[in-house]
Amino acid sequence: MENMFSAGELAKFQNISKQTLLYYDKIKLFKPSYTDPETGYRYYSTEQLDYLDTILIMKKIGFSLNEIKNHMKNYTMENSITSFRQQLSVIKGKIQELALIQSRLEHRCEQMEQAYTKKGSEPILEICGENFILYNDVATPYSMKEISIATKKCYAQALTNNLPIFFQCGVSVPIEKIKMGRYVDASMAFLITEDVSFVHNIMCLPKGLTASIYHFGNYYDISDSYIRLIQYCQINGLKIISDSYEFCINDYITSRFEDEFITKIMFYVEKK
Length: 272
What we know:
By secondary structure, the protein is of the alpha+beta class. The chain contains 8 helices and 12 strands.
C-alpha cells in the first residue's frame, strides 16, 4: 500500500519486534492506521513514524507504558516539560542509588579478593574501623534455622524501609558460649549498614584493637579456627573483651560450594 508500512517493515525500521507493535495495539497505545479486514494485516502511515519515535524515546527515558499512554492523549510543550522534569528527579534518584550500590559491591568484591589471598594465614591483630550493624536476636535453640530466620528479618527490614546495607551478613556469638565450646550458638544475626538514628536495632561496633582470623569451609567446622584465634590471644598477652563477631565474606550468596565459604571471626581485645 502506498505510503503505508506493514507491521514487519515498521518493526524492522524501529528495531523492535512485531510482537511489540501487536502489544501496543492491544493496550491502545499505538494503533495501526489501517487493518485489512480480510487478512488482519496491520498497516501504519508515514505520519505515525514520529509518534512511534516519541513512544520509544519516552520508554527509553524510563516512563512506563501507562504513563506514556496518558501523556500522549494530549501532550504539549508545557506538559512535556513538566513530565520530563519529574522524570529527571526519578533518574537522579536512581543514579544516586546505583552509585551507592556500586560502592558497596566494590567493597564486597575487595573483601572477597583480600580474604582469598589469606587462606591458611595466621590470626591478625589490627585496628578495626567503626562499623554499624542492623541486628536481630536469634531465637533458641540457636540452630542454623533460627540464624537464617533472624538474618532474613534483617534483610526484610532493610528492603522494606530502604535502609543502606552492604550486602554482607554476620552473627555474634556470646563469649560465655565460646568459653563453653559452643562456637555456633549465635545470639544475634546482623547486616553491615550505616548510622541511621531513627532505627532502634542498629548498633555501633566501635573503632578499636581487634584480633581476627579467616575461617575457610563449612561453618560447622569453625571450632578449629576459634581455638587457633583464642590460643593466639593467650600467647600474645591479649585479653578478649567482647563477644565474637563473624563476618560472612564468601557465603551462599556468592558460592554454592561450602568448601569455598569464608568467615572472618573477630574479637575486640586489649593488651594485658
